[in-house]
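Hi there, hope your week has been kind to you so far. Do you reckon you could talk me through the fold, stretch by stretch? I've dropped the whole record in just underneath, so have a look:
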Amino acid sequence: MKNIIFLFFAVLFSGASYAALEQNQMTMTTGKDKVSIGLRGSGMAIIDWGNGTVNETITLSPSEISIVRYTYDNANVQNITIFGVSITYLDCSRNQLTALNVSKNPALIELLCSNNWLTDLDVSNNTALTILRCFSNRLTSLDIRNNTELTVLRCHSNQLTKLDVSRNTQLKILWCHSNQLTNLDVNNNPALTDLMVCYNQLTSLDVSNNLALIDLWARSNQLISLEVSRNAALTRLYCYSNQLTSLGVSNSPELTHLVCFNNRISVLDLRYNAALTTLYCNHNMLTGLDVSGNPAMRLLFCYNNQLTELNVSKNTLLMRLDTQSNQLSSAALNALFESLSSPSGRIHIYNNPGTDSCDPGVANDNSWTVDTTFLPFVPF
C-alpha cells in the first residue's frame, strides 16, 4: 500500500523525487477523532491520515496558512504522516498528540505544537526554526542548542527543570513560565524584549545584558534580588510574590507598570519614573512613599504597608488609590484627602488608625468617593 502511495506522490510532486518525499516527512500520533492541521510553504503537501483510506493533497502558499481538518470514524490511535519538500510552517496544536517527529523536515521555520500531550520533542535537525511554540505539553526536557535562528520560544506550562538558551542569541521573546526551573541564564540573549519566567523556582535572575528588555514577568518565584539598573528600555515589570527586600528602578524612565506586591521591600525610589501609570506595591514593608515624580499615575495600590503619610497632589490623573491597612492617622488621612488633585476617583482607607475619626467630606469635596470597608486582596 505504501509503495502505491509513494508512486502517487511522485507523480503529483513536480521535480520532487521519490527519495525526496521519503526524506521530507513529518509524523504525529493522536487519539483525537477530530484533527486540525495548519501548513504553509510552497509546492505540494500530502497528508496520509493513517487510516488506510484517505490522503489529502494541498497546494501550499508561502504567504497563507492552509487549514486542513479531518474527522475519523472513531477515536482510535492514528499515525498521521505529512509529506512535502518545502513545508515551512506547521501548526498541530490542540490535537492530543502523544508523539511528533519533525526531524525529516529541515525546511521548517515555524512550529506550533502547543496544547498537546507530548513528553518529548526533538528539534535538533530543524536548524531553520525561528518560532517554536510548544507550551502546554508534558515536556521534561527541551534541547534547542542547534536552533540558533530562534527569535520566539514559548515553552511555558511544561515540566522543564532546566533550559539552555546560551546559543540562541537571536531570541526576542522567551516565555518559559510555569515550569520547574531553578536557574536561567539569559546573558547571551541581548535581543530579548519580552521575558516571562513566572511560576518557577528561581532564586536569582540576571538581566544586566538584556538592554533591549521591555517586558519582564518574574512573579511567583523565590527571588531574593533583582537587578534592573541597566534596563533603560523596561516598560513593564511584574516581580510580585517573591522575597525581594529592595528594588531599584531609577534607571528605567520608560517604566509604565510596576507590580511588586507581596515582597519585603522597605524603600522604593520612583523619582525618575515619570511615565509610571500603574503601581502595585501593596503587601511590603514601606514606611514612606514619594509619588511626586509620577504625574501620569492612574492606579496606586499601596495597602498593607507601614505608611504614616502620603501626598498625591502631583498625581492629577489618579483614579484609584488604596491605602487600607497602613498607619495613617486621622490628620494624615485628612491631609491625603486635601492632596487629591484629580477630577474624581475612589480611595480605600479601611483599617488605618484614623479611619473612624477622619473627615471624608474633604475628599468628597474633591469629587472623590471614600470607601472605609474591607477590600479583599485579589492577586493577579
Helices lie at 2-12, 18-23, 330-339, 361-365. The radius of gyration is 27 Å. The first strand starts at residue 25 and ends at 30.
